Amino acid sequence: MRSNILSLALIASLGLGTAVLAASTDTSGVIKSIDTKAMTVVLEDGTTYHLPAGYDVKPFKVGEKVVVSWEMKGTLKEATALKAG
Questions:
Q1: Alpha-carbon distance 17 to 44, whole Å?
Q2: Cα–chain-centroid distance for residue 14?
Q3: pTM
Q4: How far is CA 42 from the centre of its chain?
């Protein structure tokens, strides 16, 4: 019985760790550049965010303050949403 509880606790802790890593992060900043071919947005601090294919960046302009919701995918910061702000 005790080994079952330990096994379940281990499985649960591993699952929670993965969920925390996948949580999105919000970052605000000013757009330095937008590359529609590479589907990237670079903020003034130099951080590059990769947008999903087909994401409509037309409403956004260089110099505009935005909030980027993003997640780490390997070594890339993958944006899930871009909002004026």
A1: 32
A2: 21
A3: 0.72
A4: 13
- State how far the alpha carbon of 74 is from the alpha carbons of 21, 71, 78, in Å: 11, 9, 9
Question: Distance between CA atoms of 3 and 37, rounded to whole angstroms?
Answer: 54
> What tokens does 63 get?
């110099």
Q: Which of 14, 22, 18, 1 is nearest to 70 (CA)?
A: 22
Bridge partners of 73, per DSSP, are 76
Q: How many residues does the chain have?
A: 85
pLDDT, tens digit (0-9, with 9 covering 90-100), for 23-82: 789 999 999 999 999 999 999 999 999 999 999 999 999 999 999 999 999 999 999 999
Report strand pairing: 40-43 vs 48-50: antiparallel
Nearest to residue 52, comparing CAs of 83, 26, 32, 79? 79
